[in-house]
Amino acid sequence: MAYNLLKGKKGIIFGALDENSIAWKTAERVHEEGGTFVLTNAPIAMRMGQINALAEKTGSQIVPADATNEDDLNNLIAKSMEILGGKMDFVLHSIGMSVNVRKGRLYTDEKYDFTTKGWDVSALSFHKVMQSLYKADAMNSWGSIVALTYMAAQRTFPDYNDMADNKAYLESVARSFGYFFGKEKKVRVNTISQSPTPTTAGQGVKGFDGFINYAEKMSPLGNATAQDCADYTVSLFSDLTRKVTMQNLFHDGGFSNTGVSHEVIEHFTE
Ligand SMILES: NC(=O)c1ccc[n+]([C@@H]2O[C@H](COP(=O)([O-])OP(=O)(O)OC[C@H]3O[C@@H](n4cnc5c(N)ncnc54)[C@H](O)[C@@H]3O)[C@@H](O)[C@H]2O)c1
Fold first, then answer.
1. Three-class SS of residue 190?
2. Is the CB of residue 19 less than 8 Å from the CB of residue 9?
3. Best mutation site among 14, 21, 99 for ligand 1, i.e. most ligand atoms within 8 A of its Cβ?
C-alpha cells in the first residue's frame, strides 16, 4: 500500500546491486511513495549489477560513484542536484564490503591492507558521503540520512569478522555527524540495524544459512526482510520522524532484546 509519504521529496540511493539488495527494495518503495532519486553504485558494480532495470522501473538516472572517492562523491552530488532540480531530502547509504571476509581471512589473521580497504568502503565512506553533502550544502532542512548496520557492532558474532568493527565505526559516525547536521542544517542522521538478509553482501558471511535460521528462531516477530527494511526506511525519510536523529534503530523482529526463545530452548532440551 502506498501513502504518498515522500511526494515531492528528492534524494540519492547508494548500493542497489541486484533485486535482492536492501537498496533495490528501498528504491522501489520510495518510488511508490512518490519520491524521486538518483541511483548510484561503484563503477565496477555497474558492470556486475542490473541497476539499469531498476532505473527504468523507477524513472531514475544513474550516476556512478565509488563511495570512497571524494571527487566521485562531489560529482555525484552536483549532478544529482542538477538532475533533480534542487537539494536532497533523503540519502540512503547501503554499502558494505570486507576484503578479509571475501578472501576467507579469519578475525585472528587479518591482512591489514584488506582491513583498511574494507573500513574505507564500509565505514569511512559514510563520513565522506556526509561531509561532501555538508560542504556542498546539498541537504534541505528536515532532510534524512540513513545508513545500514548490523548488531555485531554491539555483540560478538565471530564470523562477521572485521565488519563488526566497521559497523561500530559507522554507527559512531552517524552520532557524531548527526550532531553537526542537526545543529547547522536541521538534518537527521540514523542507522538501521537490520536482521540477517539474503543478499550478496549478507551471504558472503561464513555460515550465513545457520546464522539467518538462528535469528529467525530467536526473533518473536521473525527476521525483518529487505522489503520490511524498505518500509522502515521510507518512514525515516518521511516527515513523520522529524525529531528522530543520532540513533541506532534495531529493525530485527525483537532479536536484539531476546535472551532466549522457546524454540531455541526446545532445540537444546534432550
Ligand atoms: N544482508 C544482511 O544480512 C545485512 C544485515 C544488516 C546490515 N546489512 C547492511 O546493508 C547494507 C546493504 O547490503 P545488502 O545486504 O543489501 O548487500 P548488497 O551486496 O546488495 O549491497 C552492498 C552494496 O555495496 C556496494 N559497494 C561496495 N563497494 C562500494 C564502493 N566502493 N562504492 C559504492 N558502493 C559500493 C555494492 O556494489 C553493493 O551494491 C550494507 O551496509 C550491509 O552491511 C546487511
1. strand
2. no
3. 21
The three cell numbers locating residue 50: 542490473
Contact 171, 189 (CB under 8 A): no
Does a structural domain hold residue 3? Answer: no
Atom of ligand 1 nearest to the CA of 97: 27
| In-domain check, residue 162 | yes
Across 91-130, b (16+ Cβ under 10 Å) vs e yields bbbbbbbbbbbeeebebeebeeebbebbbbbbbbbbbbbb
For residue 186, what are the contacts with CB-CB under 8 A and spacing of at least 6? 141, 142, 143
pLDDT at 237: 99
- For residue 219, the CA-to-ligand 1 centroid distance in Å is 23
Would the pTM of this model clear 0.90, i.e. be above it?
A: yes
Residues whose beta carbon lies within 6 Å of some atom of ligand 1: 14-15, 17, 21-23, 41-42, 45, 66-68, 94-97, 121, 148-150, 194, 196-197, 199-202
Pocket test for ligand 1, best of 14, 52, 54, 94 (most atoms within 8 A of CB): 94
Overall number of domains in the chain:
1
Domain that holds residue 219: 10-268
In this predicted model, what pLDDT tens digit does every residue of 187-205 receive, in sequence order?
999 999 999 999 998 888 8
Q: In this prediction, what percent of the chain has a pLDDT beyond 90?
A: 92
pLDDT digits (tens, 9 = 90+) for 20-33: 999 999 999 999 99
